[in-house]
Description:
By secondary structure, the chain is of the alpha+beta class.
Amino acid sequence: MSTKINxxxxxxxxxxxxxxxxxxxxxxxKESMKLFPLKPLTKGQEADIKAYFKKHFxxxxxxxxxxxxxxxxxxxxxxxxxxxxYFSSIIFRLNDYRFGPAYADKGFYDTLFPDxxxxxxFVKNINGFFYDGSKAISKEEAVSICQNLEGxxxxxxxxxxxxxxxxxxxxxxxxxxxxxxSVADLLxxxxxxxxxxxKLEQHPDLAKLNPTSVNTIRVMSYRKDNEVIVLYAVIRIxxxxxxxxxxxxxxIKADIDLATGRIKGLAFGSPTEKDMPQTDSGVVLDxxxxxxxxxxxxxxxxxxxxxxxxxxxxxxxxVDTNGNPIMIEWNRSAELSQVAHxxxxxxxxxxxxxxxxxxxxxxxxx
Length: 366
């Protein structure tokens, strides 16, 4: 089969994938909309939404995305970004999908961000090969390194989502009491593409929000030429007894005022939960100060410039006990936190939509 035919076949398959992505997210939002009372949009609002996207994105969009956000947070806007077009037609134009897997592999963070404050790497596995921070080692050496760890976390380095596969543990002479496994068995269970790092000790003011999880700041940044613009930041807070702050584990999100670093109003959890004025540990959220927030924003702006193939990035950042930002991970196709924050792109919506339309969808590139 010729190269041209292969290329055409690939583009057809990927175009079908684009359609499937849109349909999957449309099904997902319709299921979520069944879980709580909906506020109706007026005919005028529906017409304005369709006209806005027709003008700025070249096509109309279903208005139930906007109705969902409005029903959850009470804020109407034409600028909400439907997840169906974000994941199918925006993110892979602003970010070059062809470079995604290698750059996003957490196993390569030691190479990409060698001077950046991150949790210490004990052992990592990349495509079946073991390494310490950077040097190739044997499986036996990896097991030996992990014999006695006071606090560690293991997580997948590729394709891990929503905290899936993340486990906290410690080891005593090669045994893991929390999991009742040996270190050798743990490594065998994860097979390949995983990392074992030191457990993060977060700033006391973040720990107050929920002491059992690392509570992270999700920052969405957009690169415009050589300027990095922070679009929004939300605090992700775990639930009492949970070790992760992801929504699938019941985690909640609240918007952060970029100018003051203080939480704005309430937190939002799953569609079945009421809006929350305080955390499970009793901390009132409105106007709660996120520690060292200006440092976090500067940190993100510096890091984003190191990833030139990606214009729109979601960052998971915490703050350590010394008040310094610490990078957990970056996301090339991060979920948009529009329930907690409002329209994801804000005043840059029209600019970002125009920038996306000027570029090819790299899902379709051979």
